[in-house]
Amino acid sequence: MTRWLVTGAGGMLGRDLARVLGATAGARVTAADRAALDVTDPAAVDAAVAGHDVVVNAAAWTDVDGAQEREEEAARVNGEGPRTLARACAAHGAVLLQVSTDYVFPGDASRPYAEDAPTRPVNAYGRGKLAGERAVLGLLPERGFVVRTAWLYGAHGRNFVTTMLELAGRRETVEVVDDQVGQPTWSGALAVRLAELGSAAVAGRAPGGIYHGTASGQVSWFGLARAVFELAGLDPRRVRPTTSDRFPRPAPRPAYSVLGHGGWERAQLPPMAAWRDQLGDAMPELVRPSRG
Predict the structure, then answer these.
(1) How far apart are CA 292 and CA 228, in angstroms?
(2) What is the pTM of this model?
(3) CATH architecture of the domain formed by 2-158+183-215+259-272
(4) Which residues are catalytic?
(5) pLDDT per residue over 220-240, tens digit each?
(6) Alpha helix (H) ranges present in the chain?
């Protein structure tokens, strides 16, 4: 029996994790949402981690623009939270899977970022998440796992894909930026991969370190929006391309968020499926009649 603790279990990824682990043979799951566990509270975290074999930290400050304006508060959750969890895992002998982000990179590359590529965040959210990565890897060199993901979407919570489906029911055309490229990743697929990685870690088949938990391939936001319309049975020509300067935001975004997947060989796992395949698998639970 492997005892799992999922933090941030009320969020998009956390809910999928709890579902996937709940259906995994030999897994006993404690799902702790924000109300049940404040990851910045050392005493609460120590008590929660005790008795568990694997901790998956899906708790995070996810409002990128809000982090730019309230960096200290965001860094407390995204940087100090993982540090607090890592200390507790070190004390209790648990494995820690820390969910991180492509935003630790500047986004100025022309080919996929390897797991060991130099980091240089361009916004406050990325700086906070990078601090969390460093804390986990520093305190848990063998039992700490950083899993960077990007462009995450799913059924539980607002995200780009569900926003496109909602807009399709209210607007004849939608303008979407075509100058940012990344890897749309379904939270359900990432939850499965985290479960696989945690199990491999407990079995001694996966060394600690950095892994890139994103879909294979790449596409722009515009290309993703067109794929969403097409897979929902809508006319993709209703999506029109535009540029990022038309939608200024408080926090700058990386223009190139494509990650390499060489690290999975160390865990004897293949790269995750292609982004369009993931999107096709996810659509049945994302499309609702009310969205048109």
Answers:
(1) 13
(2) 0.97
(3) 3-Layer(aba) Sandwich (3.40)
(4) 125
(5) 999 999 999 999 999 999 999
(6) 12-22, 42-49, 64-69, 71-75, 81-92, 124-139, 160-168, 187-202, 221-231, 275-286
